[in-house]
Amino acid sequence: MKTLLLVTVTEFFKQRAGMFFVLLALLFGFLSGAEHHAFAVFFLTASNGMLYLGIIWLAYTLLCAQFLAALWKHPEYTFIYNARLWPSPLRASRFGLLAIGFLQPLIYYGVYLIAVAVQDKLLAGLWPIFPYYFLLIIIIGAVAEWRIGNPQIFVEKDKKQFFKWPFKRFRSWTWWSLEWLFQEKGVTLLAGKLGAMLFTSGTLLYYSTDQYDLRLPAVGLSLAYLLNIGISFELYKWESETWLWGRSLPVSRWRRMGRIFLIHAIIIVPETLVSVRNGALSLFEMMQLYILGLSVLVTTHLFFYKKEGLLEECMQAFLFGFIGLTLLILYKIPVLIIAGMFVAFSFLAYPRWYRV
Q: Which residues span the membrane (predicted)?
């Protein structure tokens, strides 16, 4: 079952990572918390609100079903047809779990609708989501059952590009690294950015409920930026395992350090834009928190070199490091001074920790 989920559901989110990033940008970059709440109330109270929601969910489900039917036609998925040997009840339950894996975004939004319905006492309009889930699971499960009952295997030929990009591919280590993240680690990238953006939104939402100083968002956003550790670890593996020959290139140590700062500065842009869009912090305050988050994330990335990518040994150090950072913030040490300390430490530690 785990293999079935990995080769199907994970592949879906990996190949559709770009689409989900666009949706995240639209949902968190252009819509505020009040607008999200207004949409939820509309779905729960309008006469055709749940009908519109059902149409949106059905369109997403059909996209998943089409992907599933097309994916299982590839030669490397011939082992899937061994599922016909499973007893019918077992096959139905496993295809149901497969469908739930595809429907994760809808389930998460359903949880949000439940929270809004409980908060605003609108439970009377909530009940249609449960038959929706049941029907959508049946649709994906039926497509999976139909595909294994009608095997169709083909070898895909190289297709001519409908649109050819008029520019040459960028000759940039940063561009190649980001390209690799999108193409090979789309699920990790998507999960990391979703968690960071949600935590950022939650921190700023709580910050706007009362009068607080900069320490609250400093702690919250530092943790949100640190949620990109998974992405940073994938960059370490990219350099240490996939792009090994890059370490032997005649590139100065400080230029390599600049690359690390640049790519992490790009990675944390989405949650920074969410913060700017929220408007709870001034531009100068947001700049301070961005520099702090960047310096902390780069320091954690360099620690991977010290431990040679052993993530288990790094996590305890990260935990105690964040506790120390929180104490520094709570003692009212200026954010820029803390960020400067981390930057200085990074430049001092890099020559000792980085091994060619």
A: 50-72, 93-118, 130-149, 187-208, 214-236, 257-275, 287-305, 317-350
Q: Are 115 and 123 in contact (CB under 8 A)?
A: no
Where does residue 332 fall: left (phi above 0), alpha (psi -120 to 50 degrees), or beta otherwise?
left
What is the number of other CB atoms lying within 10 angstroms of the CB of residue 260? 22
Q: How confident is the chain (356 residues) per 10-residue block, as mean pLDDT?
A: 76 73 64 75 88 90 88 82 85 89 89 88 88 93 87 59 58 83 77 82 82 88 89 86 76 87 92 83 91 93 85 81 90 91 91 78
In terms of phi and psi (left: phi > 0; alpha: psi -120 to 50; beta: otherwise), the region of 121 is left
| Residue 70 CB neighbour total at 10 angstroms | 12
CA–CA separation, 336 and 329 (whole Å): 11
Report d(CA 35, CA 21) in Å as an integer.
19
Q: What is the pTM of this model?
A: 0.68
- Return the structure tokens found at 308: 């040679």
Here the tokens at position 65 are 């079903």
Residues in the chain: 356
Q: Identify the residue whose tokens are 């939820």.
A: 40
CB crowding 141-156: b at 16 or more within 10 Å, else e: bebbbebbeeeeeeee
Q: Say which residue the tokens 């530092």 belong to.
A: 222
Instruction: Match 């007893």 to its residue by tokens.
Output: 87
The Cα 242–Cα 41 span in angstroms is 48
Selection from 29, 14, 47, 3 nearest residue 189 by Cα: 14
